[in-house]
Amino acid sequence: FEDRHASAVVYADSFAGILYPPGPALADMQGRINAMWKVCNQAFLSREAQVACSAGQLTWQGNFAETMQKYPHVGFASVSSKVDWVQVSFNTFFFPGLTAQVYYRDSTLQYKVYARNDNFRVYFLNGCQHLQLPVPTLHT
Prior knowledge:
Layout: E1 9-13, H1 24-36, H2 47-54, H3 60-70, E2 75-81, H4 85-94, H5 100-114, E3 120-125
Parallel strand pairs: 1-2, 2-3
């Protein structure tokens, strides 16, 4: 973003960063997934985020929020279904018991944290669709 602040927009399609249950298990699970997906040495992470990631302490929510704060002139938008079936299924694989209602509640709470930044907007859609952009029913 360094030389493109004025025209940059980050579009997060179906990303809330919700893992269930919240608390210490959340950071631990994200740390294991980051290691499994080899996220920690990626160029898109700041040096501080790479260090936190290598220590198993980088959360997706924290990194997303930190990036919004670091680039206040860049627009950030999330488009998500109220009950994203892929997100719920992903979580249920690791932690059985996540319901659609709990997912919607927790994602709403997470989006409220992101919305503390003036450069963030969220758009909730009814339904359970995952990935909105490639679907021909999404109109602008």
